[in-house]
Amino acid sequence: MRAITLLCLSFLFSTSLTLPVLAEPLPAPVNGVTFEEWASANGRIANEQNPKDVIAVLDIDERTFEQINLSFIEALKNADTAGDTMRAYGEAFGDPNRGRFSKTEKVQIEGKLATFDDYARLQGHMEASGELGITPQQVLDEHNLTPYEYAEESKRWMGRLVVEASKEHGADATAKWHEAIFAYKAEYLKKRGK
């Protein structure tokens, strides 16, 4: 299951929503589970929901879930990064309340990034992660965030940035946001000796 969590890097989520989408069919269902349901299941598992509870919603056993994992992971490996398969997978981490999961308890977030400074610190760390040789998932773990929480918080802060950018002195506000993120990136690189 941890391998699936690692596949849910926030980078995958963010890039899958910004790239142009190419028409490609989603992988066919495996053992009665659609690709979108499988992706939502993994979004919930990555959000620290009990895997047994997630698998129960799909009305399958753990062994069957592992077989489904192997099939859909292979489909992801072969998918076009700008295609529907990657988009659907990324969207599941931004909204794991889909398919059979729409009838279950909704995944909630706590608003862990209360200030822009909290968000800038996390984004700076994310931007430094590649140079530091750590994964975005490790960054999220360090900041006590799940991929779903990160996606929701990012949407909220990016929405605020769009509002600020549309104001009279929007370019100044946008520049300050980027400067703050860059400063935190530099801080993380300095801490780790890069």
Question: Secondary-structure blueprint of this entry?
Answer:
Elements: H1 2-7, H2 10-18, H3 35-46, H4 51-57, H5 62-78, H6 84-94, H7 116-132, H8 136-142, H9 147-165, H10 170-191
Helix pairs in contact: 2-6, 3-6, 7-10, 9-10
Task: Identify low-pLDDT runs.
Answer: 1-21
Strand content: under 5%
Shape: elongated
The total tally of domains equals 2
How far apart are the first and last residues' alpha carbons, in Å? 32 Å
Question: Mind summarizing the main beta sheet?
Answer: none
Helix content: 55-70%
Average predicted confidence as pLDDT: 82
Structural class: mainly alpha
Order of helices and strands: HHHHHHHHHH
Report the total helices: 10
Computed over alpha carbons, the radius of gyration is: 18 Å
Number of strands: 0
Summed up:
The protein has 194 residues and is mainly α. Helices cover 65% and strands 0% of the residues. The longest helix is centred in the C-terminal third of the chain and has 22 residues, at 170-191.
What does the model show?
It is a single chain. This protein has 194 residues and is mainly α. The protein has two domains: 2-103, no CATH class; 116-191, no CATH class. 65% of the residues lie in helices and 0% in strands. It has ten helices and no strands. The longest helix has 22 residues, at 170-191. It starts with a helix and ends with a helix. 34% of the residues are buried. Residues 1-21 have low confidence and may be disordered.
Keywords:
0% strand; disordered N terminus; mainly alpha; 2 domains; 10 helices; 194 residues
